[in-house]
Amino acid sequence: MLKGILNYAHYLLEETIQSGEKVIDATCGNGNDTLFFSKLVGENGHVYAFDIQDQAIANTRKVLINNNCSNVSLIHDSHERILDYFPKDKNEEIAGAIFNLGYLPRSDKTVITTPDSTVTAVDAILNRLKKDGLVVLVVYHGHEGGKEEKEGLLKYLLQLDQKQFNVLRYGFINQKNDPPFILAIQKKVLKLK
Ligand SMILES: C[S@@+](CC[C@H](N)C(=O)[O-])C[C@H]1O[C@@H](n2cnc3c(N)ncnc32)[C@H](O)[C@@H]1O
Which of 3, 12, 40 minimizes the C-alpha distance to 183? Predict the structure, then answer.
């Protein structure tokens, strides 16, 4: 069976990330991906979960408490500033990241991820990603502002050097109403040129 979008996003990360590693949920929202990552990396690993909305941080905190997760730093800040939380001198290697783009379900649809901040965050993470590490983006583009974000992101990803990255697009092309799709970037080298 072909996997649905969210299942395939998690499947790709499960295939890549090992227990004990450090990962980023760049848009924690209602906490589903944060919980997934928390279980995946286990008690010796760590999850850095970002969101700009109070509601998202509160919702994710509740999920983590209910599931006894103690390996997550919840960060109420924009993912644009991700590297402030990974200072170079600490030399922490990032194994993977997920971005679930768009707006918080059942909430204010005007608070959305934007092309500039998303590209800034992806670029920062790619610089600090370990060799074979993976960044997965679930791209929702049916809402206002979604098309601009999709285009900004594709423009950035299309120019990534194929010697340094593999970039995958996965989605269902016969679905109506702007179905979401996955963009996944795997880093092939230890240090970028
Ligand atoms: C589709 S939701 C995420 C869903 C979430 N992954 C889950 O499992 O429930 C998108 C989230 O991105 C957040 N967001 C928007 N701009 C952001 C930014 N610059 N930095 C971090 N989070 C942001 C929104 O507040 C919203 O909660």
Answer: 12
* 181 CB within 6 A, ligand 1: no
Structure tokens at 29: 């929202």
Q: Is 141 in the pocket of ligand 1 (CB under 6 A)?
A: no
CA angle 81, 96, 46 (to 5 degrees): 80
Confidence (pLDDT) at 86: 83
Q: pLDDT tens digits for 166-182? A: 999 999 999 999 999 99
Interval between CA 28 and ligand 1 midpoint (Å)? 5
Domains and CATH numbers, the chain: 5-139+147-187 (3.40.50.150)
Structure-token pair, residue 122: 């992806």
* Helix-strand-coil split of the chain, %, nearest 5: 35, 25, 40
**pLDDT digit string (tens) for 46-90?**
999 999 999 999 999 999 999 999 999 999 999 999 999 987 766
| The pLDDT of residue 128 is above 90 | yes
Rounded to the nearest angstrom, the distance between the alpha carbon of 24 and the centre of ligand 1 is: 12
Distance CA 150, CA 148 (A): 5
Say if pTM beats, i.e. exceeds, 0.85: yes
187 CB-near residues (< 8 Å, 6+ apart): 126, 129, 130, 131, 132, 133, 134, 164, 165
